[in-house]
Amino acid sequence: MQLFVKDLTVIDFSYLCEQRGVVGESWIVDVLLDGALNEMSMVLDFGIVKKQIKAIIDEAVDHKLLLPMQSGRLAVSPSTLHDDHEFVDFESQNGGYYLQSPNQAFAKIDTPQVDIPSVTEHLTDVIKQSLPENVAGLTITLRPEDIKGEFYHYTHGLKKHDGNCQRIAHGHRSTIEIFENGERSHELETLWCERWRDIYIASEDDAISHEDVQLSSSAKEKIDDTFDCFAYQAPQGRFDIAVENYRTDVVDCDSTVELLADFIARQLKKQKTETDITVVAYEGVGKGAIARA
């Protein structure tokens, strides 16, 4: 007997890629279970699937930075500055990325590159440990949203957030809709999606000097004036990141989807002062904010 749940959850995360650098991503999760019926004539209670399995998936990868542990461009080491924190040094073809974060902000994937097959295998191994004996098979399907228009991948962190959004390097794959005087502008959507393609979005309030940023000794030797550094203290711990400045977009606000929508609207209004601008900005799949200027 088989039991399935479509659209069980959406995982929003970022991952390190040797070619692209740090990539924000959003994948929809479907689950298929194979097994014998239990004493309740079920393979597994839908409530358990929707709550417990979703919670396992969220804990394993959601709002984390996924690390390809077999990559020769990656170095991970315990932080010498804070307990239960780690240094992450990564040098991609698209620039260097250096971080310090609490351990829980990272997911270590035993693979040379993070992709749907490697994350699927990782999640399958984690979830199987919690399944009852009558469940003999588990199939996890990860898939990106089918977006007809433009979209971008961005990475950010929200220091004021009490939950996992505070992690300094998690992200999303998002689409956007921009309207000029009520008419949709695919040209403006394309421009913003190009601007935020594989970008790190940071708040100018979180900028920190090279001297004060907390990174590995190796990273401190490598960062120079071409790098932007950001840091903050949040409930989960201390977060630091250094990114080459051509891979960052520093905004004059926090990077919540509400304020990013407003940021885009304000930037466009400066260029088109006589035009009514509406921005429908998405954060991952099926959620977002609307701003007008």
Write up what this structure looks like.
The protein has 293 residues and is of the alpha+beta class. The protein has a single domain (2-173, 206-251), classed as 2-Layer Sandwich (Tetrahydropterin Synthase, Chain A). Helices cover 20% and strands 43% of the residues. The protein has helices at 46-61, 116-128, 186-195, 217-222, 257-271, and strands at residues 2-17, 21-35, 65-68, 74-78, 85-92, 95-102, 106-109, 135-144, 151-156, 170-180, 183-184, 199-203, 227-234, 237-244, 248-251, 277-282, 288-292. The strands form 3 sheets. Strands 9, 10, 11, 12, 15, 16 and 17 form a 7-stranded mixed sheet that branches. A hairpin with a 6-residue loop joins strand 4 (74-78) and strand 5 (85-92). The longest helix is centred in the first third of the chain and has 16 residues, at 46-61. The chain is globular and about 65 Å long. The N and C termini lie far apart (54 Å). Pathway: Purine metabolism; 7-cyano-7-deazaguanine biosynthesis. Its EC number is 4.1.2.50. It catalyses: 7,8-dihydroneopterin 3'-triphosphate + H2O = 6-carboxy-5,6,7,8-tetrahydropterin + triphosphate + acetaldehyde + 2 H(+).
